[in-house]
Predict the 3D structure of the following.
Amino acid sequence: MSERVPFLNTAYAAYHHRARPSADEELARVGPGTPCGEYLRRFWQPVIRSEELQDLPRRLRIMGEDLVAFRDRSGSAGLLALHCPHRGTSLEFGLISDKGIRCCYHGWLFDVDGTILETPGEPSDSPLKDRLFHGAYPVREYHGLVFAYMGPPEKQPEFPILDTFDLPGYRMVARAPTLWECNWLQVKENSMDPAHLAFLHTLPGSQGLPMILARWENGTGWRRRPAWCTSTRAGKMIGCGFGSPILSRPTSTNSRRTRTPWPSAR
């Protein structure tokens, strides 16, 4: 079989273009130790909505890492390594405590910063909880989203308050994520391609973006938009959550902007 050529310059030449091109490993992989994964870990990333942290822990897979998110009874949010360091039990089955989360197997108690608070079953003079920690990542809640920093602790940046977070006349509302069964790069490439809007999203049966392109009948300049998109004003899109490499499957766990009052899209 011939090797795949990068471009075809003659008719009926599919024979030379049959092999599947290799994946762009440098961009497509975001797990620990990968170039893109280590780059993304240098920034605060949204991982879950604040309202999802209630009575039960939430299991997450963020950039190839299995984690558990929770809010203890004191109101503090935590993001810990999924498996208890004692016997490997999943902390998604843990018990929310007044301070931290307790493993359901032997009752070890972990604070949101990874401090081991209690080690039931160990001798009273056991030094384990005084010299060891469980894996934890710092989190910050902002406008209904829980952000996490998963990079090198010594390189942790300040949480950025971007100018788009506080635009006059708008408010930020956290929205549920949308998952696609594909690599994050495919979704992001699509969201950066405005040329397809004029064709694909005007075909019969297309949902979503045609609502953005249709002006509101009341003459305010507001435009209809689907639930997964941001508000628009004067034809300019404030932002749109089309895809992120943060979750193991791409998600639009971003915030959308709404103007008060929110127009009802019919």
Summary: Helices lie at 25-28, 35-40, 128-131, 184-191, 209-213.
